[in-house]
Design brief:
The complex is a heterodimer of chains A (about 110) and B (about 110). With about 110 residues, chain A is an all-beta fold. Chain A has no helices and eleven strands. The relative contact order of chain A is 0.32. By secondary structure, chain B is mostly beta strands. The relative contact order of chain B is 0.34. Classes of the chains: A mainly beta (about 110), B mainly beta (about 110). The interface between A and B is medium-sized, with 22 and 22 residues.
């Protein structure tokens, strides 16, 4: 158990509304990531963070923003949700020590945009 | 563009039988390759990780192989159990930017009694 908690686990919202997903970790890891997973696609990187207030874009960052004000929390915000953002979102942390480079994933947040 | 292709997309096997999943990649320069297992409704969990110098690694009934020359990997499941029903994802890391992983779309394995 890598101590990763995602919330909410399920959310249904309407087009045009803002949505924030939260990832909380208890292991003090430096690197945190947000991915989305869609049928027929591999996991795709949205944004990642390499420290407090240090973030960068991934391959599918349009329409998403992130913030990391504390080591333990990494927030993903959909500023104005669209139906194309219906997906399962996974937070991950990069392991340290013997697990260096290994990714540990949260349980996912299923978002439906109507 | 770095790509990871997995085959088959899905397969059904009877409990107790063996199966092999394939992963071909074009990621370069290669750093390492991981296989993950993802149960329905859960996050992926690592099974194995292999570097350039490793060509076989086992984790219980799971055995991964790597041929860095042909850029191919396989995951062999021996004596399958119902709990092996899951999606198996191949993930390849490039040497220069480890955080930029390339994910395959996964192979869905269904084990039937």
């Amino acid at each position: 158990d890598a101590g990763i908690t995602q919330s909410p686990r399920h959310k249904v919202t309407e087009t045009g509304t803002p949505v924030t997903l939260r990832c909380h970790q208890t292991e003090n890891h430096r690197y945190m990531y947000w991915y989305r997973q869609d049928p027929g696609h591999g996991l795709r990187l949205i944004h990642y963070s390499y420290g407090v207030k240090d973030t960068d874009k991934g391959e599918v960052s349009d329409g998403y923003s992130v913030s990391r004000s504390k080591t333990e929390d990494f927030l993903l915000t959909l500023e104005s949700a669209t139906s194309s953002q219906t997906s399962v979102y996974f937070c991950a942390i990069k392991g340290q020590g013997p697990d260096t480079g290994e990714l540990f994933f949260g349980e996912g947040s299923r978002l439906t945009v109507l | 563009k770095n790509q990871v292709e997995q085959s088959p997309q899905s397969l059904i096997i009877l409990e107790g039988k063996n199966c092999t999943l394939q992963c071909n990649y074009t990621v370069s320069p290669f750093s390492n390759l991981r296989w993950y297992k993802q149960d329905t409704g859960r996050g992926p969990v690592s099974l194995t990780i292999m570097t350039f110098s490793e060509n076989t690694k086992s984790n219980g009934r799971y055995t991964a192989t790597l041929d860095a020359d042909t850029k191919q990997s396989s995951l062999h499941i021996t004596a399958s159990q119902l709990s092996d029903s899951a999606s198996y994802i191949c993930v390849v890391s490039a040497l220069s930017n480890d955080y930029k992983l390339s994910f395959g779309a996964g192979t869905t394995v269904t084990v039937r009694a």
